Amino acid sequence: MPTPALQCQAVRLRFGEVLALDDLTLDVTAPATGLLGANGAGKSTLLRSALGLIRPDAGSVRVLGHDVTAERSEVRRRVGFMPEHPCLPVDMSAQDVCVHLARLRGLGRRDAVRRTSEVLFAVGLEEERRRPLGTYSLGMQQRTKLAQALVHGPELVLLDEPTSGLDPAGREEMLAIVRRLSRDLGIRVVASSHVLDDIERTCDEVVVLRAGRLAAQRPVRSEQGAAGPVEISVTGDVAGFAAALHPVAEAHGVRLAPGPTGDLALSASPDAVLDAVRDLAVARGVGITRIRSAARGLEDVVVDAMGVHGG
Ligand SMILES: Nc1ncnc2c1ncn2[C@@H]1O[C@H](COP(=O)(O)OP(=O)(O)OP(=O)(O)O)[C@@H](O)[C@H]1O
After folding, report:
1. What is the ipTM of this complex?
2. At what angle do helices 109-122 and 138-150 cross, to 10 degrees?
3. With a 6 A CB cut-off, is 45 part of the ligand 1 pocket?
4. Atom number in ligand 1 closest to CA 16
5. In what residue span(s) does the ABC transporter domain sit (predicted)?
């Protein structure tokens, strides 16, 4: 198990009357994790706490195994941050900003220039790197913010709404770059978003925050895959069919029960059990009208967790 990118233990953080993080306990270990939540759910507050930019009132935050409060400079060295809002000086070029920030983060001049060329190339800005940022499109400004987060060679980047305000083409470009970070470059990613689709396309796991609390944490792709729970609708002698199937299911560690929407529910559907379902149906003259996955889709889980329906 790799060192968690981010660990929160009972973190509470209050802004006046607003409890932005409410006893948040969380372990983020996936190569790329998406933080999803409605406006005000606490995503930015969590990312800023992870950098030590704001300090929780209670609890602890560790990043890559380091305590953010006690080892702040270590954390800053290993982590890059892309803030949500514009923060770069409009009269400087992307080249100058990146070199300057790389030097501030401890790189020598030669390394700072070399790394700047690499990251501006990686985000597709090598051609325009000497133009003032004020002349950049929003997409180019976002990519510059990402480049500066990468320039000192961090192990982890925290991206606050990397696709915010981008048009469809800019969004596609940004999503492709973010996906490459963890998949091809081995840089761990924690990225916030309002959009599940962005997270599904760039991350391995989704963490849903709701009112400063952990509402759900799920892999983006179910490990159960095609062998997950199923419900089976049967015509004919359901009880006899279930009794015949029971020993086979049990032998494969699969629970068999009456189904809430079909006639039978299987807790998993390994091939051997599905083969037995079909063979027994033929042998007993039972008709199988439907086999459907009973696994809840990621979207259902996320919608519930976000309380989108007012829950
Ligand atoms: N500096 C601050 N002063 C006062 N309240 C703040 C401050 N920063 C955040 N908050 C409040 O804390 C709560 C969490 O805000 P946060 O920005 O972390 O949410 P978010 O999930 O990032 O939302 P968004 O998607 O809108 O960016 C909100 O109610 C917000 O108004």
Report:
1. 0.96
2. 140
3. yes
4. 4
5. 6-236
